[in-house]
Amino acid sequence: MEEIPLTRLRPGEKALVAVLPAARRDLARLLAFGILPGTEISILQTFPVYVLAVGHTILAIDKEIAASIKIGRP
Amino acid sequence: MQRSIILVGAPNVGKSVIFNNLTGKYVNVSNYPGTTVEVARGYARIGGVPCEIVDTPGIYSLATVTDEERVTREFLLAGQPDLVVHVADAKNLARSLPFTLSLIDAGLPVVLVLNLIDEAAAAGLAFDTAGLADLLGIPVVATAAVRKIGLDRLRSVIAAPRPRPQPPFLLSPDLEAAAAAVVDRLGARRPAARILALLLLAGDPASHALLKNDPAYAGIAAAAQAAVARSPQPLALRIAAERQVQADRLAAAATRHGPAGRRRLAGFLDRLTRHPLTGIPILALVLYWGLYKFVGGFGADVLVDYIDENVFTRVITPAVDYACRQWVPWEWLRSLLAGDYGLFTLGLRYAVAIVLPIVGTFFLAFALLEDCGYLPRLAMLVDGLFKQFGLNGRAVIPVTLGLGCGTMAVFVVRTLETRRERILATFLLSLTIPCSAQLGVVLAILAGDGRSVALWAAFILAVFILAGWLTARLLPGERSPFYIELPPLRLPDPANVIHKAYTRMIWYFVEIIPVFFLASFLLWLGDRSGLLTYIIKAVEPLMAGLGLPAATAQIFLLGFFRRDYGTAGLYDMAAAGLLDSRQLLVAAVALTLFVPCLAQFMVIVKERGPVAAAVMTLIIAAVAMAAAWVANLIAPLFI
Ligand SMILES: Nc1nc2c(ncn2[C@@H]2O[C@H](COP(=O)(O)OP(=O)(O)OP(=O)(O)O)[C@@H](O)[C@H]2O)c(=O)[nH]1
Ligand SMILES: [Mg+2]
């Protein structure tokens, strides 16, 4: 399995989170939204910021955080 | 004995709606995360038991980041409440349960409220609350707070004897051993020792800071560090992952899935407001209809004229005049009450006839925007621009609120993460964001000429961008990343919109009346003693430098007390035809940028400290004058 940054995904795509950012703050934020390795996310939009759906939560994050999340590609 | 009940949970799940229902008080309810920024208390007798109920700012987890989140956490861990009501969004049960588990972990008596059950039902979700209650060992109540469903059940749970604290949900043995080692050093009797230990293991800086001065801290930190060193993965991640596994299992056992209803329109509008190609035109429409037409046109023009002419010119002013002539023998008192700077003619009239209608219409329009859930979408659209100012999209919420009242907005700046962001946002708010009273008056006096309005708006926008860009470079430092949860678009509840606008208007009115009276009293005093003529003479060269008549000095003096008050003075001068269109524009620019009003200044002192407040005010006064000078130079090119 290959790990690529979330920013490589296009709107409409789904993926499983593989690696979360190491920075404590960003990590704490994502964990609080229930985003963990193995969580399925779908991309709704990529500009001007990234919009993700995680379960029934819709989350907007900037490119920096999005780039620090790695997703698994089979 | 009075029981203390504390409402906690993630932002925007309906804690404040529940608080309002339980206590009969009103705290703001809006459809975006971060509405409540201060703890609110209310009292009620619930099932015969006297209760103190506390509403708190929303937090996503106990590992907190912003100031207002820290408040909630301290309340929880140090306050020893009799009951903690964890309000959760039923749609996101699996995401919410880790927080419930950590509250149980802290040894707190917890009730879980699954709110927004109506939205969950629409999404095809149903819950076995009794089953979940058994699994968790705590009461679980399903509610739809805005429809008052399930609240009686919640009341009976609150009135019931205090639930016994539950044993914690254990993590894997090595994590438990690490936690036990830290608890050992902390002293097992310390309240919430176990949760504190887990936070320390996860490297939560606030928890470390809390214990810095504890004599045992060295040992505590060493125990935590040893565990961190042994683990190949960050402990924060491991603890969260194990918690999530437990939460997922509980949620799966308690949730029944049915067919989801389709909300086509909401989904369509959601995409429209999110996408820049449609979102920016929508923003323009919102500004045009909401701000220009409704606040500027209806509020500042129609309503102000109506109240000024029909209430003041016809009724109050003649009545006060008459009363003065009949019963007040002293000339000085007559002029204090009804003279040029009289308490009634100036103070009350400006407040009631000019400021109130404008502020009222603004708050009404703003409440609609807040309640439908538009603001978080606006935040994501402007994130890129705000990044240039050292801020991120989240700052759009205090900034738009500042278009209503800068004083309220400075409070809301708390929701920004870093100190630098809070200073930058406070500065931009104080310098460039006109409050609704100013905005309305400026729109009304410039309204005769569309070009003037456009020029004024372009000028203020340019100063906003330039000042933001410059200060971000002069004040280097950390910027926090942008993230915001987008709540579903919701149909605003008219009762809430009206109640919120009304509460803010009353707050505003109570805030301004004494200042308006004080200011007109001081002006009256200055006028009688001749000091005013002297001051106006003294600043005459400054006014002349801006191409303004000397009398304009007076509105700047008023502006020192309140910007809206000064702008109201400008309204009068414009109505009397004392200024030409270039002078109106220059005066409008200067007053818009001019020093924050007294109330806002006080709040800045409180929130950012006296030094920051004083420095900002000086810079702002200088920038305002410089900008007005530039406006005076370039205005002839356009008008
Ligand atoms: N449909 C529906 N909407 C609800 C319900 N409860 C709350 N809301 C809406 O949810 C939004 C948030 O409500 P608040 O009470 O402000 O939420 P809060 O938890 O206090 O939020 P913060 O103060 O930001 O932490 C508002 O728009 C409410 O009208 C509910 O049971 N059903
Ligand atoms: Mg609230």
Structural class of chain A: alpha+beta
Level of helix content of chain B?
55-70%
The sequence of SSEs of chain A as H and E is EEHEEEHE
Q: How many strand units of chain B?
A: 9
The N- to C-terminal Cα distance of chain A equals 5 Å
Please sum up the structure shown.
The complex is a heterodimer of chains A (74) and B (639). In chain A, 20% of the residues lie in helices and 41% in strands.
What does this structure look like?
The complex is a heterodimer of chains A (74) and B (639). Chain A is α+β, with helices and mostly antiparallel strands and 74 residues long. In chain A, 20% of the residues lie in helices and 41% in strands. Chain A has one domain: Roll (SH3 type barrels), CATH 2.30.30. In chain A, a hairpin with a 2-residue loop joins strand 4 and strand 5. Chain A is globular, with a radius of gyration of 11 Å. The model of chain A has no long low-confidence stretch (mean pLDDT 91). Chain B has 639 residues and is an alpha/beta fold. In chain B, strand 4, helix 3 and strand 5 form a beta-alpha-beta unit. Chain B starts with a strand and ends with a helix. Chain B has a 6-stranded mixed β-sheet, sandwiched between helices. A two-stranded antiparallel sheet of chain B has the order 6-8. Strand 5 (57-61) of chain A pairs antiparallel with strand 9 (483-485) of chain B. The structure holds guanosine-5'-triphosphate and magnesium ion.
